[in-house]
Amino acid sequence: MTGSAGSRSSSSAVIRPAGPIGPACWYAFDTGLRYAAGETAHVDAPLERIPLFCPAGAMLPTTDTTDYSRLTDEPSRALRVFAPPGASSSAFTLYEDDGISLGYRDGQYAEVSFEMKTSADEVRVLATTTGRYALPYDRIRVLNATGDPRPLVVEGRGIRLTGEPAPLRSR
User: Fold this and answer.
1) Shared domain check, 70 and 26
2) Hey, which of 7, 67, 102, 127 has its CA 20 to 30 A from 152?
3) Whether 44 and 63 share a structural domain
4) CB atoms within 10 A of CB 107
5) What is the pLDDT of residue 50?
6) How confident is the model at residue 129 (pLDDT cuts 50, 70, 90)?
């Protein structure tokens, strides 16, 4: 979910959806600050930064570098996890291919399936790779994007995972 202020304002009122099947809460992508579902909040929204919010339980894959000159062969990945409070689970599959050829038509792709399970005691992330495409990276750094105090436990099958807290940025 994003919120934009437009050209003349530096803040924006953002309402985060709530409901019987909605997330327990939302997190600001860049700071990890937690917001209640259904809450309206005024957030900073300068033109150079669009506010981005992730629902509790989200896992967001990114590159793990600030060198954006490499497009299809960038050899790093990070997974930012936005763990929900309490016990929960979520999952998604990351699709990877070379981004250039039609090799995916012949099965030259890989899938990295992620599963996050949370309890009162820990946040556990499991990744499993399948497919014939050789990934351009050999590890994925799993980041605790919210500063959650529970231990982050990671396990990779076919890919090495490393877990660590993400440095939270101030507002």
Assistant:
1) no
2) 67
3) no
4) 10
5) 81
6) very high
Dihedral angle of Cα 54, 60, 65, 67, to the nearest 10 degrees = -80
Whole-model pTM? 0.83
Number of domains in the chain: 2
How many Cβ atoms sit within 10 Å of the Cβ of residue 45?
20
Cβ count within 10 A of residue 4: 12
**Whether residue 160 sits in one domain with residue 118:** yes
User: Which residues span the domain enclosing 43?
Assistant: 1-56
Task: Return d(Cα 131, Cα 125) in angstroms, integer.
Answer: 20
Please say if the pLDDT value at position 1 is more than 80: no
Under a CB-based contact definition with an 8 Å cutoff, are residues 5 and 45 in contact?
yes
Residue 171 pLDDT more than 60?
no
Going by C-alpha positions, the residue among 157, 164, 125 that lies closest to residue 141 is 164
Instruction: State the CATH number of the domain containing residue 81.
Output: 2.60.40
CB 161 within 8 A of CB 139: yes
Residues 75 and 155 in one domain: yes
**Residues 125, 118: Cα–Cα separation, whole Å:** 9
pLDDT tens per residue across span 8-60: 556 666 666 676 667 889 999 988 989 888 877 777 777 777 888 899 999 99
Same domain, 106 and 61: yes
